[in-house]
Design brief:
four-stranded mixed sheet; about 30% helix; alpha/beta; binds heme C; elongated
Length: about 240
């Protein structure tokens, strides 16, 4: 009997410990530093989605509802979660444990205090207008709000504006608006489409050097049609 009681109490304590402590002890200024781990994939600007959805205005809202973000996992869409201290505490401790099969590739923050601090920051940052608020309060630089949004590619110099791409044997020959044609090994060329309004002008794909060696490039098109318009097999 006694042993059974002790076990039951132990289990309850264990569950309470797993759920973590109230976030009242979180420090938003320290949490702002933790937020650095999120900026590669999230912005705090409304509607600006990166690899992950914009977090602007999500505090107190149902999960997987950010306007215009179409890459949510099935699990998160079905979860019926509302983002608050408790749900964020579980999510940030271990996203995969809360939503198996989630697309958020993040191994979680194991330290309770670090998580509390981050959540105290998120309570401000994920409130409506939170992106501007956390900058004006000096908690994070403007860069953190923007997230790692790729740089705009408009107004490119002529040696980066692509006029034609021909593929021959194991190579791409990339012609640019300055009249030159440069060969690249086919495995060193990546094709991307950037449909954002800061992407390349339609009809003017751009070539961007990628990597230090200078033998790798990315070609960025304004839309999918341009892939067939600009690239052909020709020796
Ligand atoms: C490697 C990219 C990546 C990193 C790093 C990352 N996230 Fe995410 N996050 C995502 C993706 C992708 C989703 C969508 C997950 C899904 O649909 O399963 C997401 C979803 C979310 C959501 C739910 C959004 C919604 O619309 O319901 C929150 C909240 C969130 N992340 C917070 C964070 C925080 C805070 C951090 C930093 C501690 C972080 N994320 C780090 C990619 C990332």
């Amino acid at each position: 009997m006694k042993r059974g009681m002790a076990l039951a109490v132990g289990t309850l304590l264990g569950v309470a410990a797993m759920a973590g402590h109230a976030r009242a002890d979180g420090d938003a200024a320290r949490g702002a530093k933790q937020y650095r781990a999120c900026v590669a994939c999230h912005s705090l600007e409304p509607g600006s989605h990166l690899s992950g959805p914009s977090l602007a205005g999500l505090w107190g809202r149902k999960a997987a509802q950010a306007d215009g973000f179409i890459r949510y996992s099935k699990g998160l869409r079905a979860a019926e979660l509302v983002w608050d201290e408790n749900t964020l505490n579980a999510w940030l401790a271990d996203p995969e444990a809360l939503i198996p099969g989630t697309f958020m590739v993040f191994r979680g923050i194991k330290d309770d205090q670090a998580r509390s601090d981050l959540i105290a920051f998120l309570a401000l940052a994920m409130a409506p207008g939170g992106g501007d608020a956390v900058v004006s309060q000096g908690l994070v630089p403007r860069d953190y709000v923007r997230g790692q949004k790729p740089d705009p590619v408009r107004l490119a110099p002529t040696d980066t504006v692509v006029t034609r791409i021909r593929h021959c044997r194991d190579s791409y020959f990339i012609a640019t608006a300055d009249g030159t044609e440069t060969p690249y090994w086919e495995m060193n060329v990546r094709f991307k489409v950037d449909t954002r309004d800061t992407g390349p002008e339609p009809g003017h794909p751009v070539v961007l050097r990628a990597g230090m060696a200078g033998d790798r490039v990315s070609i960025v098109f304004a839309n999918i049609q341009e892939l067939t318009q600009f690239i052909s097999e020709a020796c």
